[in-house]
């Protein structure tokens, strides 16, 4: 019966340390800038805005296409 092979040698210590990171671009911030809470432009203010102005008649015609809300029922979760 052949003898068991020798175990592998442990990893060698690192002799050359990793290089430092590249120099940053001059003038670039080293960290992200904090959010000040103010929008950068007037368009960034409202979350829901209309891109085209709509007249009252067009809005009424659009709303008429939807079904009316159901009547309020006092009974809920009844079987």
List the helices and strands and how they pair.
Layout: H1 56-64
Biased composition (Pro residues): 1-32
Region (Disordered): 1-53
Q: Strand percentage, roughly?
A: under 5%
Q: What would you report as the Rg, rounded to the nearest angstrom?
A: 35 Å
Assign the structural class, choosing from mainly alpha, mainly beta, alpha/beta, alpha+beta, or little secondary structure. Answer: little secondary structure
From the spread of the alpha carbons, the general shape counts as elongated
Q: Which residues form runs of ≥5 with pLDDT under 50? A: none
Order of helices and strands: H
Number of helices: 1
Looking at how many chains there are and whether they match, the oligomeric state comes to single chain
- The whole-number mean of residue pLDDT values reads 70
Taking the alpha carbons of the first and last residues, their distance comes to 80 Å
Taking the sheet with the most strands, its summary is: none
Q: Write down how many β-strands occur, each being a DSSP E stretch of 2 or more residues.
A: 0
Biased composition (Pro residues): 1-32
Region (Disordered): 1-53
Offer a quick outline of the entry.
By secondary structure, this protein is low in regular secondary structure.
Give keywords.
little secondary structure
Structural notes for this entry:
The protein has 79 residues and is largely without helices or strands. Helix content is 11%, strand content 0%. The protein has one helix at 56-64. The protein is elongated, with a radius of gyration of 35 Å. The model has no long low-confidence stretch (mean pLDDT 70).
């Amino acid at each position: 019966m052949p003898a068991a092979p020798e175990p592998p040698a442990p990893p060698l210590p690192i002799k050359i340390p990793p290089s430092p990171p590249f120099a940053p671009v001059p003038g670039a911030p080293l960290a992200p800038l904090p959010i000040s809470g103010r929008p950068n432009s007037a368009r960034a203010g409202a979350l829901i805005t209309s891109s085209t102005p709509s007249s009252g008649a067009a809005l009424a015609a659009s709303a008429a296409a939807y079904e009316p809300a159901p009547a309020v029922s006092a009974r809920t979760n009844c079987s």
